[in-house]
């Protein structure tokens, strides 16, 4: 009891000597503790200044504010998780106490030696894969200009027929946005495939529809004018349609498009009809019925049954396109991606995430622009894109509560761009009203 009294006296005496704080206790408590309501006076002085800052900051996503593991950090985490952190002495003691067995230190040394050799081998293979090839290998990889073959292929079809998915699969990387929503592609997208001495340039075009008169719809005429005008510019044309939907719910507009493109043979351009999404068809015999339906069209050289998403039948289509290539110089550099292609890929990736997280008519009503593109000294890329809306209500939906929606779109797009470009990406997204 005497000790408690003495301790209480010391605490009271020391507290009386502390300097008094000039802060207002209610205001300080309100500021630090979110569970208490804010006072009216304090809110009046800060609301006008904070509303504008919060509304502006919530509508901007900056990838530098989020921690993303780079390759070195991820390797460090994997390295520490791969090996046990306990001491060998404690391990032997635990084995004796639990299992009643003795652990031979020589066995532990052998296991550690095996791990070290496996880690050294994996590191050597990784370094060999990342190193640039020798000059002799580079000379062997180079194809002389007189031996080069090239082919330009246009891919057209109705909206949501799988044109972008087929383009991405044949190229081997994402170059066009893929979504369940119709009219995902709004402009022509380029994808390049180089194999040996042959290079194929794929042009993914917006979805096309025809009215009864054989002309495009008025609301699509301006958007898809370039798609129609550039059809005759390709060496080969792929007309693709959703065979699963055709079997369940036939669309007369799609049938008109197929029949119009294959109504007559064009000597300057070969055309191929592709039945896409065959993996969704349960009865494969139904595919033969669809093939018989369009077999009398003289404009098509070949018919292919493919799945652009799963890759079924795409190998045969690619081999056929390789055989149709003509001898002429390549149009694109096979070893590097041009800056224009990279810019277009960044827009397509963000647009795909936008279509995944925002619904109804909002993704089609906004304007998506690339504002800034810089390659920094450390090899990273700084990308700034603006999403422009016409109404404040649309802006609020895109931003989400406290910037949650635009933040999620930015994080997913930033991670995908890093995996595509194989370098660090600093992505900035801003939502503003026009």
Please outline what is shown here.
The chain has 434 residues and is an alpha/beta fold. It contains 18 helices and eleven strands. The strands form two sheets. Strands 2, 3, 4, 5, 6, 7 and 8 form a seven-stranded mixed sheet that branches. Strands 1-11-10-9 form a four-stranded mixed sheet.
Provide a descriptive summary of the structure in words.
The protein has 434 residues and is an alpha/beta fold. It is built from 18 helices and 11 strands. Strand 6 (270-276), helix 13 and strand 7 form a beta-alpha-beta unit. The protein has helices at 2-17, 25-32, 40-58, 71-82, 88-98, 105-130, 135-141, 163-171, 218-221, 225-229, 243-248, 252-261, 285-293, 314-323, 339-357, 362-365, 392-399, 404-421; strands spanning 60-62, 149-157, 189-195, 198-204, 236-242, 270-276, 300-305, 326-327, 367-375, 381-389, 425-433. The protein is globular and about 100 Å long. The termini are far apart. Helices cover 46% and strands 17% of the residues.
Largest sheet, strands/sense/barrel: 7 strands, mixed
> How much strand?
15-25%
The percentage helix is 40-55%
Order of helices and strands: HHHEHHHHEHEEHHEHHEHEHEHHEEHHE
SSE class: alpha/beta
Mean pLDDT: 76
The tally of beta strands, per DSSP, is: 11
Q: Alpha-carbon distance between the termini? A: 74 Å
